[in-house]
Design goal:
The chain is built from one helix and six strands, in the order ββαββββ. The chain is mainly β. The protein has one domain. Strands 1, 2, 3, 4, 5 and 6 form a six-stranded antiparallel beta sheet that branches. The protein is globular, with a radius of gyration of 12 Å. The protein starts with a strand and ends in a 5-residue tail after the last strand.
């Protein structure tokens, strides 16, 4: 059973829009615009998963490794993972 979904968004969404749509999931975001401190302003969500990097074994992230998709980052909107969280930035956000 797959625990991820590839999304079809083509336009950037704000952090608040992503949080509203994908609350409870881990989200992989491309073409991200970040604040000076690394917080997400907006980006295009392309994959959601129950766990970080769900689907990596299927190679679904390979197409996003090009400069066209930089900056890339992931955000966790998951609940019940040992801490209280709303939205926080994790992973490689340097492109």
């Amino acid at each position: 059973m797959k625990t991820y979904k590839i999304l079809n968004h083509t336009e950037p969404m704000s952090e608040a829009e992503i949080e509203h749509l994908y609350d409870g999931y881990w989200v992989y975001v491309v073409k991200a615009k970040l604040t000076e401190t690394g917080g997400l302003i907006e980006g295009i969500p392309v994959v959601i998963g129950a766990e970080p990097f769900d689907g990596v074994e299927d190679g679904i992230y390979d197409e996003y490794k090009t400069a066209e998709y930089a900056e890339r980052c992931d955000i966790s909107l998951r609940h019940n993972v040992g801490f209280i969280s709303s939205l926080h930035l994790v992973g490689d956000c340097s492109g």
